[in-house]
């Protein structure tokens, strides 16, 4: 199983990357629990490292080689975890820009776990009114449980086995069920040009009809 994790955290270290790492590990544990012989290959993509390339792609229309490779990894993944900080009650601009330059068919049928971080629990609904509609538009299969982590979720007693840990475990189990289920993994997008008939053959066919 190829699991790709997209993190839109801006600082180093960041709570967004921390949540991304925790979710990736939770999914790995859930997959092993369902399919003990299933190896899980995890790749973490830090969008902050590709911010300039993402911006340039908007201008030129063509992603640079490094960004193109990242986009390909997301497209080929069996499952995706997408984590963003919440700014002004929505996903970050960097997060949205990345999925804007991704091919519109890349996530079709792909299992996706959505997650976000923020300073206040008041922003938790951003998962439902911002992230879920975005991935529904991209025709991804979004797991029922979204994971939001406020600053207060990381400290104090019960952080390791409290509500946040419970949400992560439940969401990870849902993603594992989709990626390990029979026939659930999406195949690579079909190349629209694979079946194009060369012009010379089309012309020969027309002449033959005449």
Automatic annotation (TrEMBL):
Extract the Gene3D superfamilies matched here: 3.40.50.360
Ordered alphabetically, the record's keywords are:
Flavoprotein, FMN, Oxidoreductase
Q: Does the keyword Transport apply?
A: no
Enzymatic class: oxidoreductase
What residue stretches are annotated with the NADPH-dependent FMN reductase-like domain?
Answer: 1-154
Q: What InterPro entries does UniProt report for this protein, alphabetically?
A: CE1759_FMN_reduct, Flavoprotein-like_sf, FMN_Rdtase-like_dom, NAD(P)H-dep_FMN_reductase
Record GO terms (molecular function): oxidoreductase activity
Superkingdom of this protein's organism? Bacteria
Q: What is its EC number?
A: 1.5.1.-
| Protein name as it appears in the record | FMN reductase
Q: In the record, what lineage is assigned to the organism producing the protein?
A: Bacteria, Bacillati, Actinomycetota, Actinomycetes, Kitasatosporales
């Amino acid at each position: 199983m190829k699991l790709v994790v997209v993190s839109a955290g801006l600082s180093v270290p960041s709570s967004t990357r921390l949540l991304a790492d925790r979710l990736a590990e939770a999914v790995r544990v859930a997959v092993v629990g369902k399919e003990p012989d299933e190896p899980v290959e995890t790749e973490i993509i830090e969008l902050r490292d590709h911010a300039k390339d993402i911006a340039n792609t908007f201008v030129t229309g063509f992603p640079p080689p490094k960004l193109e490779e990242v986009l390909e990894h997301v497209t080929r993944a069996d499952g995706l975890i997408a984590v963003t900080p919440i700014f002004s009650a929505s996903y970050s601009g960097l997060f949205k820009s990345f999925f804007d330059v991704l091919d519109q068919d890349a996530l079709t049928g792909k299992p996706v776990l959505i997650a976000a971080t923020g300073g206040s629990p008041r922003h938790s609904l951003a998962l439902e009114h911002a992230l879920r509609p975005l991935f529904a538009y991209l025709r991804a299969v979004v797991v029922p449980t979204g994971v939001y982590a406020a600053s207060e979720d990381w400290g104090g007693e019960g952080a390791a086995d409290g509500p946040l840990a419970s949400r992560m475990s439940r969401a990870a189990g849902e993603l594992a069920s989709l990626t390990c289920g029979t026939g659930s993994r999406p195949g690579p997008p079909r190349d629209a040009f694979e079946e194009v008939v060369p012009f010379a053959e089309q012309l020969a066919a027309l002449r033959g009809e005449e």
